[in-house]
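Field log, afternoon session.

UNIT: design team B
ACTIVITY: writing a sequence onto a fixed backbone
BACKBONE:
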């Protein structure tokens, strides 16, 4: 760990409290001059640091997205072993796919303050202003056993909902196939994409969470909200990202070890769609009926009005409002 990371660790762990410069310099074994250079460098990276002659220095929280803060002591097996953060990209998922051929890329997390061409399902755009929300993608290079698409989609939804509850204290619901909702409005979404690259099946899980802003109602097909409208507490994007990544890592382990019933039960406990009547479009056809279940392997189980029971895959289905 370099000196800048060590200084950042101490300031971050103090949670906004002041630290005397001599104490900070001694803790990381640098001179006061070198400490001043490090603090200036952190400010150049977007961190806000207050300095007081009487009290010392402190990191203003919430902190900006930072790869080191996300990786440190994350404790995951696979997801988040490496992270990279950008100010602006075309798409975090595109960067993740482009990284797949690099050595040890599996589990890479790509985050950005802004996406010029963020995307959602069915060719829709994901709209998010700079610096307001959480935008990240997780790369899974699956050279051996490919994780089931349906299971991974509901696992990602579940992980986002659980992470929001753990880090921000909000109880979210889940709407098939890929939405996380709060008070009936969309708060977050996931997009699972899969490509064959270099002979290996490569999957990217894209995650977008509306924290400080949500798209205008005339720009989306369903009401959206953002977390700032529901809480007065500061939103630590670093801690939310870590909470989601830990739960996604755990869910992927459960899928890989064929514990799909655990994913299913946890997902269904947050979903109120069972026994609801829905109209669903899938591969050019429209199905109308009552929801019986959501299968981790076969998608939405619908009892159609014409008496048929159908399984509709998340990848090619959308609920018609």
């Amino acid at each position: 760990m370099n000196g800048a990371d060590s200084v950042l660790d101490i300031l971050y762990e103090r949670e906004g409290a002041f630290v005397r410069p001599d104490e900070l310099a001694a803790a990381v074994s640098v001179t006061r001059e070198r400490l001043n250079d490090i603090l200036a460098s952190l400010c150049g990276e977007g961190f806000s640091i207050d300095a007081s002659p009487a009290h010392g220095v402190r990191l203003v929280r919430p902190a900006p997205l930072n790869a080191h803060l996300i990786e440190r002591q994350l404790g995951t097996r696979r997801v988040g072993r490496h992270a990279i953060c950008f100010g602006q990209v075309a798409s975090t998922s595109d960067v993740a796919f482009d990284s797949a051929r690099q050595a040890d890329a599996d589990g890479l997390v790509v985050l950005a303050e802004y996406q010029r061409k963020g995307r959602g399902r069915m060719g829709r755009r994901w709209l998010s202003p700079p610096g307001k929300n959480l935008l990240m993608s997780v790369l899974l290079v699956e050279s051996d056993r490919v994780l089931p698409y349906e299971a991974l989609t509901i696992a990602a939804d579940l992980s986002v909902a659980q992470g929001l509850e753990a880090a921000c204290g909000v109880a979210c619901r889940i709407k098939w196939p890929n939405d996380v909702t709060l008070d009936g409005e969309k708060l977050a979404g996931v997009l699972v994409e899969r490509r064959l690259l270099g002979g290996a099946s490569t999957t990217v899980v894209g995650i977008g969470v509306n924290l400080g802003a949500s798209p205008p109602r005339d720009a989306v097909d369903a009401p959206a909200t953002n977390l700032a409208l529901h809480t007065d507490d500061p939103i630590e994007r670093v801690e939310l990202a870590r909470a989601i990544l830990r739960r996604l890592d755990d869910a992927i382990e459960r899928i890989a070890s064929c514990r799909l019933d655990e994913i299913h039960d946890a997902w269904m406990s947050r979903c109120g769609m069972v026994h609801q009547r829905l109209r669903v479009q899938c591969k050019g056809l429209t199905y109308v009926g009552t929801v019986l279940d959501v299968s981790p392997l076969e998608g939405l189980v619908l009892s159609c009005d014409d008496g048929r029971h159908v399984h509709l895959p998340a990848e090619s289905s959308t609920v018609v409002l």
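LOG NOTE: Residues 149-168 form the longest helix (20 residues).
NEXT ACTIVITY: expression trials, pending approval
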